[in-house]
Amino acid sequence: MVRALREGDEAAFAHLVDAFGGSMQRVAALYVRDRAVVQEVVQDTWVAVLRGIDRFESRSSLRTWLFSILVNIAKTRGVRESRSVPFASIADDPESGEESVPVDRFLGDDSAWPGHWASAVPEWHRPLERLLSTEVRTLISASIAQLPDMQRKVVSLRDVEGWSAEEVCNVLELSETNQRVLLHRARSKLREVIERSGLQEN
């Protein structure tokens, strides 16, 4: 694919657009809200890819490289569109003391098993898009939009786009620990939304 792109193969470029175009728009929308600006970010990314393909050194996958370019462009446009938020809401510091799960979800000191889950926690292995019904997806999409900035981005990439932890760390420039903590917090909040809704699938 890289060789074909370097040789100006239009079919290879069209294949890349088909493969990643939709996902690129969704990721760009994590940084800019205006649909026209999202389209501009994606278009600018394709231009940057074509201009920079000769310098691509294959240290990461083509997809990771492409989305790193996209995120950098989207960040710049996000600032330009005055979409910056208070630092405290985007830092999501794992040491901040924020509770990932409400304390009342655990057994108290008067229990035979203090600190253990008060009720079983369902496993969460599959991406959200495959796991949830249309009704719950709508609820979850709205809930994802309300998450703190970095939690929203991490859970969107991991559970909606189906990215690996390594890809998310590379593109968002996060440590493995930060990525894991952010994902856990986001999933915990979304799980609570699903449980409250009573719409869980068996």
Secondary structure layout plus pairing:
Layout: H1 2-6, H2 10-28, H3 35-52, H4 62-80, H5 87-91, H6 128-131, H7 134-145, H8 149-160, H9 165-172, H10 176-197
Helix pairs in contact: 2-3, 2-4, 3-4, 4-9, 7-10, 8-10
Overview of the structural elements:
The model is unreliable at 83-91 (pLDDT under 50). The protein has helices at residues 2-6, 10-28, 35-52, 62-80, 87-91, 128-131, 134-145, 149-160, 165-172, 176-197. The radius of gyration is 19 Å and the shape is elongated. It is mainly alpha-helical. The protein has 2 domains: 2-80, Rna Polymerase Sigma Factor, Chain: A; 87-197, Arc Repressor Mutant, subunit A, CATH 1.10.10.10. It is built from 10 helices and no strands. The longest helix is centred in the last third of the chain and has 22 residues, at 176-197. Helix 2 (10-28) crosses helix 4, helix 3 crosses helix 4 and helix 7 packs across helix 10.
| CATH-level-2 architecture of the largest domain | Orthogonal Bundle
CATH class descriptor name of the largest domain: Mainly Alpha
Largest sheet: none
Structural class: mainly alpha
Features:
202 residues, mainly alpha, Rna Polymerase Sigma Factor, Chain: A, Arc Repressor Mutant, subunit A, 2 domains, 10 helices, 61% helix, elongated
Quick summary:
With about 200 residues, the chain is mainly alpha-helical. Helices cover about 60% and strands about 0% of the residues.
